[in-house]
Design goal:
Helices cover 34% and strands 20% of the residues. It is built from eight helices and nine strands. It has helices at residues 16-19, 27-42, 93-104, 123-134, 164-176, 180-184, 188-193, 199-209, and strands at 2-8, 47-53, 60-62, 67-69, 78-80, 112-117, 140-145, 216-222, 229-234.
C-alpha cells in the first residue's frame, strides 16, 4: 500500500555541480525536494520506488545499486540508486537526479528500486503500473520525478506556448492537493505538445494512490528557465 509520495522536478540543473553559476536560481526547488524526501523517510516505508521519464533505452526496472552519471552534462559525477552491485545499464537522467536527491538526503529508510517510464504511456497503463507498485509491499513510498512544460517563455527550450502556464497550473493544483481524478484528467496529447516530461509518472502515482487516502501539499511551483518545476508531498 502506498503510504507516502514525493513529486520532484528532474532537471540535471537541480544538481549544483551541473548548475554551476546558475545554482542559486534552483535553491528553493532543492530545499523543497529535501523536505519532500524527508516526508518519505518519516513514513517508514518497506520499499521505495524512484520513477521518472525515460527514453526507450532507459525504460523499465532499475535494480538497487544501479548507477547514473552526469558526464553527459559536463560533470564527472556518478550516483548510485541505493547500495548494491552496478547494473548492466545506466540510469536515465531523471532517475539519476532522483538518486542524487536520495544521496544528498542520506536515504537509509528502505530498499530502493527505479522505474523508467515512457512519456507516451497511456493513462490506463499508468494506473495499472501504479497499482502494481503499491501492492508490492505493505508500506510503499514513491519518489516521482518529472517536469512540467518547457514552453513557458520565449527563451524556454520549447519556445513559448500560451497553453503551457494553464496546463502547469492545473498539474500543480492537482498534485499539490493529491486530487487523483484531476491528475488522471491531465491531457496526454496536450502534455506531449507542450513537452511535459512528467505526465506519465504523475499518472502512475495517481494509480498507486487510488485507495491510499493520502493528503497532498504543494511545496514549490515556479518556472525558472521557462520550464515548469513543482514539488509536492503526499502523506
Amino acid at each position: 500500500m502506498l503510504v507516502a509520495a514525493a513529486v520532484c522536478p528532474c532537471p540535471p540543473l537541480l544538481v549544483p555541480e551541473v548548475a554551476s553559476g546558475a545554482a542559486p536560481e534552483m535553491d528553493d526547488a532543492r530545499a523543497a525536494c529535501y523536505d519532500a524526501v524527508g516526508v518519505l523517510a518519516a513514513a517508514r516505508p518497506d520499499r521505495l520506488y524512484v520513477l521518472g521519464p525515460a527514453e526507450q533505452s532507459g525504460r523499465g526496472p532499475h535494480p538497487q545499486g544501479s548507477r547514473g552519471s552526469f558526464r553527459g552534462f559536463g560533470v564527472d559525477l556518478e550516483v548510485s540508486l541505493g547500495k548494491g552491485d552496478p547494473a548492466r545499464r545506466e540510469l536515465p537522467p531523471s532517475l539519476a537526479v532522483g538518486a542524487w536527491l536520495l544521496e544528498r538526503t542520506d536515504w537509509t529508510g528502505a530498499p530502493v528500486e527505479g522505474l523508467g517510464v515512457g512519456e507516451p504511456l497511456a493513462r490506463e497503463r499508468c494506473a495499472s503500473v501504479g497499482k502494481e507498485l503499491a501492492s508490492s509491499a505493505d508500506r510503499v513510498a514513491l519518489l516521482v520525478m518529472g517536469d512540467g512544460s518547457n514552453c513557458r517563455t520565449l527563451k524556454a527550450p520549447g519556445y513559448f506556448d500560451d497553453r503551457a502556464a494553464a496546463f502547469d497550473a492545473e498539474a500543480a493544483r492537482a498534485l499539490g492537493s493529491a486530487d487523483i481524478p484531476a491528475v488522471f484528467a491531465l491531457d496526454a496529447e496536450l502534455a506531449y505538445e507542450l513537452n511535459v516530461a512528467g505526465r506519465s509518472s504523475w499518472q502512475t502515482l495517481a494509480g498507486a494512490a487510488e485507495d491510499a487516502g493520502l493528503a497532498g501539499r504543494l511545496l514549490y511551483d515556479d518556472a525558472p528557465y521557462g520550464v515548469g518545476y513543482l514539488v509536492a508531498s503526499w502523506s
